[in-house]
Amino acid sequence: MTDYGAFATDPLFGLPLEELWFGLVFFILGMFLFLDGFDFGVGALFATREDEAERETLLAAIGPFWDGNEVWLVVFGGALFAAFPAVYANLFSRHYLLMFAILGALILRGLAPEMYEQRHDETWQTWWGRSFVAGSVSAPFFLGVFTAHWLLGIDSLVSIPGVVVGLAVVALTVVAGVGFLGMKTRGALRRDIVGYGPKAIGAYLALVVATLVYLVVFRTDIGLLAPLPLALVVVTLVAAGGYLATLRAERYTLAFGTVPILVFALVALVAVLLFPLADPAAGLTVSDAIISILPLNILSVASALLLPLVFTYFGILYSTFSGPIETGESYS
User: Fold this and answer.
1) Taxonomically, which superkingdom (predicted)?
2) Cα separation, 211 vs 139, whole angstroms
């Protein structure tokens, strides 16, 4: 029998791997919400465009990115399954229909622009344009419902806090979409799109406040009033103010730079409120749910090697397709 020594009995380099992997799972979820979030936001803003050239510009803006951005959702599911298999099994079995709703929305969002470009008659493009909007709005909504139900241990398909958080995530994706299009568009289209930014951030903050009030009043066990959650709320307010200020100053790159702060503050808040539980509905703590030391060490080494490659790929992708969309560019 192979003797793995300390590698099989002690965490790698003495690191707190349980907490690190819990944080990594939520970091990956944040990466998906940030990167695919602006794609969803552009899809929602697509509904505001009637001019064909403007619609083509919006599709061209996300064309090189959206399918790569979706990889982060696959990585999230894979990381959750690899490190916390019991949590993965419980969540996906309890929220089976919700998972299929997210998957269906993502399929619709991905298929619609491809079909939209196949024919240029009005009825065809109207139908697939609406499908693109529906998929772009429903995917983040269902993801928000799922996240709220995970945190609160809710087993039902629909709940009031789930709906509120789902709408908040949709509003956040519109915030991201406005910031992204501020960098990628020009002229009258950019001025019009940017006008949706204050409305979106206002809606997001209102929905966040409603969620916080619910937690304070009805879920005192969550621990929202602890220092770290309150600090994350303050970070959100400061970032929202920065977003508005940079939009007004027409500093669109800086405006987009506030989006990951808003996204990761939200995801970190969920993680902080959840910890040390990994699955409240099942009563599983992070220590209960984590895999044993040997596979966890192997998984940690593999991730340390692979994640830099993933970040390198995305760095090359975004640098290659940086800059505004030029006249005549299209999705295809």
Assistant:
1) Archaea
2) 20
pLDDT tens for each residue of 235-249:
999 999 999 999 999
**What radius of gyration, in Å, describes the C-alpha atoms of the chain?**
21
Distance between CA atoms of 113 and 133, rounded to whole angstroms? 10
In angstroms, the CA 226 to CA 104 distance is 38
The predicted model gives 174-197 an average pLDDT of 94
Rounded to whole angstroms, how far apart are CA atoms 228 and 226? 6
Q: Please choose, from the candidates 25, 261, 38, the residue with its C-alpha nearest in 3D space to the C-alpha of residue 147.
A: 25
The burial class, CB within 10 Å (0-12 / 13-18 / 19+), for 7 is middle
Q: 11 in the Ramachandran plot: left (φ > 0), alpha (ψ -120 to 50) or beta? A: beta
pLDDT greater than 50 at residue 1: no
Percent of the chain with pLDDT over 90: 69
DSSP 314: H
First to last CA, the chain: 56
Sequence-distant (6+) residues with CB within 8 A of 72 are 28, 29, 31, 32, 35, 36
Flag whether the pTM goes above 0.70. Answer: yes
Strand partners, 277: 285
Amino acid (1-letter code) at residue 262: L
DSSP 11: -
Tell me the C-alpha distance between 108 and 141, whole Å.
14
At 250, give phi and psi (nearest 5°).
60, 35
Residue type, 305: L
Contact 6, 15 (CB under 8 A): no
* CA 29 – CA 78 distance, rounded (Å): 11
Contact between residue 170 and residue 41 where contact means Cβ atoms under 8 Å apart: no
Which residues on neighbouring strands pair with residue 284, listed in sequence order? 279
Angle at 11 (CA atoms; ends 10, 12), nearest 5 degrees:
115
